[in-house]
Write a structure and sequence with these properties.
By secondary structure, this protein is mainly beta. The protein has two domains: 127 residues, Beta Barrel (Lipocalin), CATH 2.40.128; 123 residues, no CATH class. The protein is built from two helices and 20 strands. Strands 14-13-12-1-20-19-18-17-16-15 form a ten-stranded antiparallel beta sheet, with no helix packed on it.
């Protein structure tokens, strides 16, 4: 017993203290809520709009069409299901990565967007509700117009993440197996189970603040600032999306 006590006394206090980041966290639904308006025009068999095809246009004939290549898909198909529903499928090398069904309410004022993300080992589902901010032009499909997101929900397998922080590094893992284990040395480390082959580097700002920088093909695509609350029950997140030039803030709550 005396040997055990002596051993514990020799361990630095910082090594014995648990980091406020350690544990499993639930992401606030606001993290997935689009900040910018979604703008679409579907008329004369052609789909135009933001999102999957950027600022371009493709035929709405259900065929896979090449779009500006991204890290997660290289073709998109648009199919009109009926007067109030449209299906959009994004693929990478022929594999479906995202399947979206847009449904417009009978009065034309609400859009429900159901998305299935198949980029990981299990599908992640998300449903987002939008309010119309601009009417559809005469003769166009009901999806046409501008939409503002106001509510979203995501399947449980896509809303939790487990963190572990030590004096040497920081790690993260999701229930689907996507994650990383990086050291505080400025080097880039791979994100496992990520088809886009993202690399991350981590920086410890303080015992309760960490910065995570994500890169793809050597370019910075995102910077996330994590700040743990003094009671270690929540984390304030500031996420900078470099490709979209937007910044979102939200909270994460610690699971019991």
């Amino acid at each position: 017993m005396n040997k055990v006590l002596l051993f514990l006394l020799l361990i630095p206090s910082a090594a014995l203290a648990q980091s406020p980041f350690d544990g499993t966290w639930t992401v606030d639904s606001k993290a997935w809520l689009p900040e910018k308006l979604e703008v679409y025009l579907l008329a004369d068999g052609v789909f135009r709009g933001t999102g999957w095809i950027g600022d371009g246009e493709i035929k709405a004939d259900g065929q896979d069409r090449k779009v500006v290549k991204t890290d997660y898909y290289d073709t998109v198909s648009v199919r009109i299901l009926d007067a109030h529903r449209v299906e959009i499928i994004a693929k990478k090398v022929g594999k479906p990565m995202f399947t979206e069904v847009d449904t417009i309410s009978p009065d034309g004022n609400t859009l429900t967007q159901e998305l299935k993300d198949t980029t990981e080992s299990q599908p992640v589902r998300m449903e987002t509700s939008f309010r119309r901010t601009e009417k559809a032009p005469s003769g166009s499909h009901a999806l046409s117009g501008s939409w503002q997101a106001y509510q979203t929900k995501r399947s449980n397998n896509g809303t939790t993440i487990t963190y572990r922080c030590t004096a040497e590094g920081f790690s993260a893992i999701t229930p689907l197996g996507e994650g990383f284990d990086a050291k505080f040395d400025g080097k880039d480390y791979p994100v496992g189970d990520d088809p886009a082959h993202t690399m991350v580097s981590v920086k410890r700002i303080s015992p309760s603040a960490v910065e995570i920088t994500s890169k793809r093909n050597g370019r910075i695509v995102g910077v996330v600032h994590l700040s743990a609350a003094p009671d270690a029950k929540s984390i304030h997140v500031v996420s900078e999306h470099k490709e979209r030039n937007t910044t979102s803030t939200y909270e994460m709550q610690k699971q019991p």
